[in-house]
């Protein structure tokens, strides 16, 4: 039996897009078809296709599945990816988080071979699942985006609705001018680019004005929001509640990780990574050692090249850029 799946896919927000193919009924095993517009890559299992352009806009995906072979075509550009029999499941699942993937239309049809009643019933179930997914993904679209206007270029960031308190606190800080003519004041190459106020500035002010007390913002640590490249996080000091500063942020750049590196981090932290997080860290990169310790409340949707340029500037021994990298933030929608 050969089945053809035609998908029109809109990469509306965020860099990582994931479609799960033929996972089991819990959708936690099987292959995931991953798209990265920043790195122009498409990966399935251990196979990566490089140099796929245009993933930031509407694309058409054709999947032909027969036995243990998946044939993937993107905008009529063909590649073949084999899959191992042990990964085979009974259903085809599509899912997305944070509104990263929107399906404009889905068509499931046989190719040449006849359809038996059981296969037809399974396909109907899959179509129903896909319709539900479409509604869910639209409802999950994020409500606010901002643009960092820097002297290196612009960066567009989607703020997560899953961290509503940090989202609203950040929007309020922008409105109050807290980030007017702010600078990226601590840049650690292949790690993070920190902006806003420095730790010393905040801590010295608190020391000089003890009557004002120490103000921190309660953490919103969500395991599904992690330190992948392009993530926006809230800075903090070494407080046990992991509460955030009101006026410090950072962009994650990080490095591509290996399974061995991720295994060591899991052992140290005592918490496993989700399978899709491993795939992101192994293909896109990030700073997984920070997961669970700092609040992630957004991600770059456009301008990762600008973020990379900022992270590559020359710095002194204290990681302060030799030439100021200035930014202002404009709210795009709310």
Give a structural overview.
The chain has helices at 117-139, 164-175, 199-208, 259-269, 275-283, 304-311, and strands at residues 2-11, 16-21, 31-36, 41-44, 47-50, 59-66, 69-74, 77-82, 101-110, 144-150, 153-159, 182-188, 192-196, 231-234, 248-252, 296-302, 326-333. The protein is globular. The chain folds into two domains: 2-139, Exo-inulinase, domain 1 (Jelly Rolls); 144-333, Cyclophilin-like (Cyclophilin, Beta Barrel), CATH 2.40.100. 22% of the residues lie in helices and 33% in strands. The protein has six helices and 17 strands. The N and C termini lie far apart (48 Å). With 334 residues, it is α+β, with helices and mostly antiparallel strands. β12 (182-188) and β13 (192-196) form a beta hairpin. Strands 10-11-16-14-15-13-12-17 form an eight-stranded antiparallel β-barrel.
Helix/strand order, N-terminal first: EEEEEEEEEHEEHEEHEEHHEHE
What is the residue-mean pLDDT, rounded to a whole number? 76
Distance between the termini: 48 Å
CATH topology of the largest domain: Cyclophilin
Report the CATH superfamily of the largest domain: Cyclophilin-like
Radius of gyration in whole Å, from Cα?
Answer: 22 Å
Give a quick summary of the entry.
The chain is of the alpha+beta class and 334 residues long. 22% of the residues lie in helices and 33% in strands. It has helices at 117-139, 164-175, 199-208, 259-269, 275-283, 304-311, and strands at 2-11, 16-21, 31-36, 41-44, 47-50, 59-66, 69-74, 77-82, 101-110, 144-150, 153-159, 182-188, 192-196, 231-234, 248-252, 296-302, 326-333.
